[in-house]
Each structure stands twice: as structure tokens, then as C-alpha cells.
Design a protein that fits this description.
Blueprint: E1 8-9, H1 12-21, E2 24-31, E3 34-41, E4 43-45, E5 53-59, E6 73-85, H2 93-96, E7 102-117, H3 120-135, H4 149-156, E8 159-165, E9 168-174, H5 181-193, H6 197-210
Antiparallel strand pairs: 1-9, 2-3, 2-6, 4-5, 5-8, 6-7, 7-8, 7-9
């Protein structure tokens, strides 16, 4: 991934926050047929340091299991907020006209070797952690134990666990840090008026860090 210095996100904590908020990964592997991509929710654990571990599960019938050799590097991509940026939102448009469209986004790339965990107890614990994380905001959170035991047991038999200790972590926050303050301010207003509050907040944070 091309990461100009101004768009680099060096904070592991910030990258971890994005992974927790957007746990659906694009998991890119190298298979015998070439590059392969699967979309798998992954739960982040902060240990071991400095980058942590990603855990999830896949269907036992998924051919991607053959790609997880334990020694071949895998890439997990996590996407944060993104938005098309209209030139009309820039204050300098009226002054010079020298503005063009772009796309703002935040993304994290996590690298490591994936191992397969074919262990029912490990898998149940992973599912419970993943469920608790994603159900936490609901007024009446659902738990794995709420379903009949024989039902969950049959589903557990059809999946296997996967685990990746993160060896490299790269973050890119392209949120208009390269724009002058007047354009950042007008862009924030334009994003807010368009209902793109998440990107507006990222631009505001990036502006504070850039100046």
C-alpha cells in the first residue's frame, strides 16, 4: 500500500480502534490458483504485543483453509469510513478554481501467518468473545448460550477456527491533511451537511494533527 508520510497513521491504538469498530476483514491469501480474498469477521486481542492477534472462523468446506499453511504471510484489510470529496466543498474553489475531486478513507492492513485451530473448546470461546463484542451495544444482547445446545453443537462441527498473530500493522488515514485550513473547515461543513459525520470527524482530527 502506498502511504505518503502525511497520510501515515503511526498509532497502534488508533489502528486497533478501527479494527474493533469494523471487524469484517478482507482476508487476502496466496492460493495455488493465485490471489484469493475472503470476507471474514476477526476479533482482535491486544496480546501478544506490540500488534496483537486476530481470531475468527471459516466454514470447514471453505477452500481457503488450504491457503493457511502457518508459514505463508496473509493480509487482513480493515476499512474505516470513506467518502467522495467534491471540489465544491473547498473554500478555495471560488478563489482559484484549482481544485479536483478525490476520495477520503481510512484503512488498516494487518499481516501475519494464519494457523488453523480445529478445537471445539477454543472455537466456542472465540465465538462467545466475537458475539459479546458485537452484541454489546444492544439493549438485550444475544449470547451463544441462548440457542439450543444441540443446534450450536451442529454448527460448531461445520466450522474451524483461524488465528493470526500480527507481525506488521500499517494504517493509512487519507483525510485531507494536505489541504489548507480554510479548505479543511469548508470540507468539514460540507461533509456534515451531507450526513457524512464519521468522515467529517476524521477530517477534523486530521486537521488538528497536521497543524
Amino acid at each position: 500500500m502506498y502511504v505518503p508520510k502525511q497520510f501515515e497513521e503511526p498509532s497502534v491504538e488508533t489502528m486497533h480502534e478501527l479494527i474493533r469498530a469494523q471487524p469484517l476483514s478482507t482476508l487476502v491469501t496466496l492460493s495455488s490458483d493465485g490471489l484469493n480474498a475472503n470476507h471474514i469477521p476477526l476479533h482482535l486481542s491486544e496480546s501478544p504485543g506490540p500488534f496483537g492477534t486476530l481470531r475468527g472462523h471459516v466454514a470447514r468446506a471453505n477452500p481457503v483453509l488450504a491457503d493457511f499453511t502457518g508459514t505463508t504471510e496473509t493480509l487482513a484489510i480493515f476499512h474505516g469510513p470513506n467518502a467522495y470529496i467534491s471540489p465544491s466543498w473547498y473554500a478555495t474553489k471560488k478563489q482559484t478554481g484549482k481544485v479536483v475531486p478525490t476520495w477520503n478513507y481510512s484503512v488498516v492492513h494487518a499481516y501475519g501467518c494464519v494457523r488453523v485451530v480445529d478445537d471445539t473448546l477454543w472455537l466456542r470461546a472465540q465465538l462467545e468473545m466475537l458475539t459479546r463484542h458485537n452484541e454489546a451495544s444492544f439493549p438485550e444482547p444475544w449470547a451463544v448460550a441462548d440457542a439450543p445446545a444441540e443446534f450450536t453443537d451442529s454448527l460448531l462441527a461445520a466450522i474451524v477456527g483461524v488465528e493470526m498473530v500480527i507481525t506488521r500493522l500499517t494504517g493509512k488515514w487519507k483525510v485531507s491533511q494536505n489541504q489548507p485550513p480554510q479548505n479543511q473547515a469548508s470540507l468539514i461543513a460540507g461533509l456534515q451537511a451531507s450526513g457524512l459525520q464519521s468522515m467529517a470527524a476524521l477530517v477534523e482530527t486530521g486537521a488538528k494533527q497536521a497543524h
